[in-house]
Amino acid sequence: MRRGIGRGMAWVMTCIGIATFALGGCKPKVGAKCNAGQEICVDKSNGLFCGSDNKLAAMSCGGPKGCEQGSQGFTCDNSLASAGDGCETEDDVSCSTDKKAALECHDNKFDVGSTCKGPKGCTLNDDKISCDNDTADEGDACHFDDDYACTSDKQLVLRCTSKKMVAYNACRGPNGCVIKEEPLEHKIEFDCDDTFANVGDTCDTEGNPACSTDKKSLLKCASGKFVAHKSCNSGCEYDTKRERFSCDGAAGSHIGHTAAAKAAAAAAGGATAAGNQTSIAHPGASAAAAGSAHPATSASAAGSAHPAASAHPAASAHH
Prior knowledge:
The chain contains no helices and 28 strands. A hairpin with a 2-residue loop joins strand 11 and strand 12.
């Protein structure tokens, strides 16, 4: 199958820069009483802000510019942080210090909004962060529902559902799950070789065939899972040239399999799909999340906009 989606994701992030009121006397501490709008640098990488309960709360300033306070006011560069670090602005975003995740600020704490396990990781570019989430693992956090990724071992295509990456289709054939960039079309395509699978593996097309990885059975997709269809005492094989399955050799059943899956998603959305024709009853084609668009913007309590850098139209077709 091929998945066409916009590459990665990015949010605009602006450093907090609000003039503060000077606090005299003892060094301020978390939990001390404060007035609305107060912000203080504790050291180069940590600051304090006045929370809604009028008490000072911690905030991380782990970005290259750190925490600065002077005649020009207060700035906290939180473009790098760790999950659990304090933050002031709801829906603010940051890269994790290991560049493997994009963090989001909720209830004054940074939490993982999406893993960024692709080769480019989480990167900073002026006031934006970009997250390469083309590689992920089951259970990973994700930002856009109906986004897709290959697992780290290339054995599964994942789909973002309710902000978590879940198994979508097994790719246990020799080519595994392959990520292909289409820069001119501003999308990523995912090729999934599902000619081999295990009983119980997730599948997305009802009736789709596969050989078991031990080659002892012919499987078919039923209710979203691969199940045993027929025992193959002499082995189950897939002929890539003839695009056919065989069970127990020439004397056994032969199940046709279409050529390489093809799908395309234009920037405005839309999908085309290649059909399945086999001796097992098949639907003609499947297309998942075709043309899905992702929210363009979200606004923090402080009014800083966090638009996504690209929409993620998605399409799939199964071979």
